[in-house]
Sequence to fold (210 residues):
Amino acid sequence: MDLYASDEEKGEEIKQWWRDNGTSVVMGLVFAVAVFMGGRYWQANQQSHLTLAANHYQQLTVFLADNKIDEATSVGDSLFSDFSDSPHAVFAAFELAKQSVSRDDLTAARSYLEWVIEHAELSAQKVTAKLRVAQVMIQQGELSAAYRVVQQTEAGAFSSQFKELEGDILIAQEKYSEAEQAYRTVLSSLDSNDPRYMLVKLKLDDVNGS
Fold:
């Protein structure tokens, strides 16, 4: 726009610019508002989704505390089907697996843990589930399968727990010298003040006694 033009000329230029660009400006504003409102709607929907999942999980824990297993299982099924993308579904699977083990329903426990392995987003949750699946396999007498899980899992921060479990499997297979080495490896990675140190030390002493 010419800085030295008259007010009338400036007005005409503004009108002409608006005639040329008004439609695109309006469409751009409409699009921006739509994006903003869509984002707000998505956030509200997500928050509502998580709140419902949290309510389901709270209900499940109450049922478990009251030993209402059928009701807890039903709520868990709802979490797995309708809220599988929420962390509460993973928490529920761990709780139901723990309850199943306490009732000696190892098949159900293993199913819940395998659900975590398949659906959890956090690697730590997946690794924890694999550790517990291997423990369940040992109780089911599937020692070779448990050993494969232990060997194939990238344990990371859980490596000492997996190594200890490897020792437990080797003991069950009566491979005492290999179990001894596994337990010694665990002890070398633990501080003597660690609560697990004494437990593993007792296992090692039992191996030596054997």
